[in-house]
Amino acid sequence: MTPPEAPSAPLLADTVYRVLRRHIEARHLPEGLLLGEANIAKALSVSRTPARAALQRLADEGLLVPHAGRGLLVRHDDPAPQPLRMDLHEAGLSLVAADEDHLDSSTTADRLYPDIERAIASCMAFGRFWVNQTALASHFGISRTVAHDLLTRLEKVGVVSRDRNARWYVEPLTPAKAQEHYTLRALLEPEALLLAWPHMDKARIEASWQRLVAAIQAPAALDAAGFDQIERDLHVDLIHLCPNAQMVKVIQESQMPLIATHYTIERYSDSAQIGQSMLQHLSVLTPLMEQNPQRAAEALRYHLQQAAEVTIPRIANLPVLRPDQYPNYLLPER
């Protein structure tokens, strides 16, 4: 499970928020202009996650009001403005050089983050690694500043840490630490699911359910990206709708073992465990389709308990990685 946008989104979302707020406060965007994730993402060349976060922040501040359809409307004086559908640049959106530089830099980091998180997280269960920032920058053809930004994002979600000499390292995922994380998740994720239920979109649940059923019916066609999306559908896109931000933060940090573990599974092509995991996901999503969140929460707790029982013994018996199995910007501690 890779949550590619969640860790990186806050920095990029801040820029998107500042750009939109500046235009709204200066009345450069007309009243009633319809803003949505899609048209903002297209106009600013960002993903939908930072666009969504920025929209929510502006709505919370009263600068945008809900539209009866989808999206939000720019509000100046009219408490219920009429919707105006226009291309955002034609409506008045323009970027200064500083905006473009920050968006370009953030977008580069945003684009690379999933691959880097994937590569590093897949090594967590195999021991302690040092991260060479210069080698990371060289590997991806980016500046040390962007490399530092990426490592800082990884630090926020617990994938990497820094020692007293400011050297980056990957802390090993031990069986004991994995047990702690799974215990937290089994306690918090079902409760977060119940809190998130009123905020769930029926279409999103149905799309996740259909994607999962298709994968179960045709397992041979399921690739790493497809399995990654199935994990994200439940454990990120739905669970993270929980309005309790502190709960979501703790859950997100404790989901890191799942990332490491599933990439470990991916290395050894454990199709039986993947199939079992998908069936357990189905036992969560089906009650949500039937509007029974309590049964879904119970199924989610069982799923996490089973994942812990399978995963933790596996972590204790992993082989040493060969040099060709980890990127050149990682150095295993001897």
TrEMBL record:
Domain of life where this protein originates: Bacteria
PROSITE patterns recorded: HTH_GNTR
User: Which segments constitute the HTH gntR-type domain?
Assistant: 10-77
Q: Which InterPro entries match?
A: GntR_C, TF_FadR/GntR_C, Tscrpt_reg_HTH_GntR, WH-like_DNA-bd_sf, WH_DNA-bd_sf
Is the keyword Transcription regulation in the record? yes
Q: Name one Pfam family in it.
A: GntR
What SUPFAM superfamilies does this protein map onto? GntR ligand-binding domain-like (SSF48008), Winged helix' DNA-binding domain (SSF46785)
Q: Which Gene3D superfamilies match?
A: GntR ligand-binding domain-like, Winged helix-like DNA-binding domain superfamily/Winged helix DNA-binding domain
Keywords per UniProt: DNA-binding, Transcription, Transcription regulation
PANTHER family for the chain: GNTR FAMILY REGULATORY PROTEIN, TRANSCRIPTIONAL REGULATOR, GNTR FAMILY
Q: What is this protein called?
A: GntR family transcriptional regulator
The species is: Variovorax rhizosphaerae
